[in-house]
Structure formats: structure tokens, C-alpha cells
Amino acid sequence: KAGVTQTPRYLIKTRGQQVTLSCSPISGHRSVSWYQQTPGQGLQFLFEYFSETQRNKGNFPGRFSGRQFSNSRSEMNVSTLELGDSALYLCASSFTVGQGTDTQYFGPGTRLTVL
Amino acid sequence: DQQVKQNSPSLSVQEGRISILNCDYTNSMFDYFLWYKKYPAEGPTFLISISSIKDKNEDGRFTVFLNKSAKHLSLHIVPSQPGDSAVYFCAASVGGDKIIFGKGTRLHILP
Fold this sequence. Notes:
The structure holds 2 protein chains of 2 kinds. By secondary structure, chain A is mainly beta. Helix content of chain A is 0%, strand content 52%. Chain A is globular, with a radius of gyration of 13 Å. Chain A starts with a strand and ends with a strand. The mean pLDDT of chain A is 91. Chain B is an all-beta fold. Chain B has no helices and 11 strands. Chain B has strands spanning 4-5, 10-14, 19-25, 32-38, 45-51, 56-59, 62-67, 72-77, 86-94, 97-101, 105-110. In chain B, the strands form 2 sheets. In chain B, strands 2, 4, 5, 9, 10 and 11 form a 6-stranded mixed sheet that branches. A 5-stranded antiparallel sheet of chain B has the order 1-3-8-7-6, with no helix packed on it. The radius of gyration of chain B is 13 Å and the shape is globular. The chains are: A mainly beta, B mainly beta.
């Protein structure tokens, strides 16, 4: 069974631009969560989607948004990029909702660098 | 406000010995705890979990201990192997929602 895939793997943008990252969950998984990983803050929860609906949202500004499609694929968008948005963005999928109790499978991440 | 704290950024352990990774939390409502392992250039991989109704859970070489009164959990790896060198994240959630991760501990297994 194919794992979680994320595209692109690496991205370089400049301040003020916007970016869209994509995540394809494991086949059959309907829950997708996004995380930001930085050296100083570790893994921080961005949002979780299930059946095209956002179930939970972390403490990030409105510049960070996401969506989920009917095939469970998900995208996250960051508008008006800032230098501090440079991070590894991880996507995780699970079969059910309640990410804390169902095993989440992570993708390899998208490394975003903002110059 | 860091609700899940891993106070040791790194830890070095001799191969074959026991590795003990520690994690403290502040939210007494957390009822589910997880450990993830992460290699460079890969996403985290689920390792082991424990519900707040238990104080110990074992899976092969990995054992997680939970001390609710101290709001402390630990991951024991026995015996430690070279492939265990990775970053380990402790995580917690309330009712299965919104996992909160610690900042991670880098474990080095020395030959």
C-alpha cells in the first residue's frame, strides 16, 4: 500500500508570495492533518480535515488555510509568506477521525524556504 | 505555553544499554500519549502509545511508562541498537483530538 505522499518536496519562495502544498493520504484514509516543524518549536498542529470538513485548527494566523477534496487529497495554502514560515510542513493521514487515538501515518514533508 | 515538554534536546547511549527518554506535560486533561520516531528526510513514524487508564505499555524493545500524578511519561528502549538513532517526539491529546507534540529529543546510539 502506498504511503502518504507530499508534493513538492522542496520549495523556495520569497517574502510576500503565496504557496500551495499538496498531500495525498494513504488509500482509504479519510482524515488528513497538517503540521509545521521548526527547530525552535518542534511539531505544531495546523489543522485537521475529515470528509472535506475542517475538524480542528491550531493557533496559526489566517494566512494559513487548507482544504480537502472528495478523494481525501488535501492542500494547504500560505499567503503573504514571511521569513518565519520557513519550515518543514508535514501531512499525516489516518483512517478515522480523532487523530490522537488512531495511528497517524506521516508523509516525508515539504521543506519550504522563504527568502 | 509548551504543554508537552521534552527537556533533553539530545541523549547519547551506548549500544546495548537502556535508553530512557523523558517527557513532561502540564495539561491534566490529556488522556492519550504517543511516541513518534523521526529519521532525517522522513516523516515521523508512530512508535507506541498509552492511554491514561494505564501506567505501562510494552511493545518489543519499547516500553512507555506513565506517571499521572507527576504528569510525566518516559520511553524505555532496551537494548538500544544503532538503528534507534533518531529524533523522538512525545505527544499528547485530549479525547483523541488535536495532538500536541514536544520539541523532540535526538537520541545517539554509540557503538
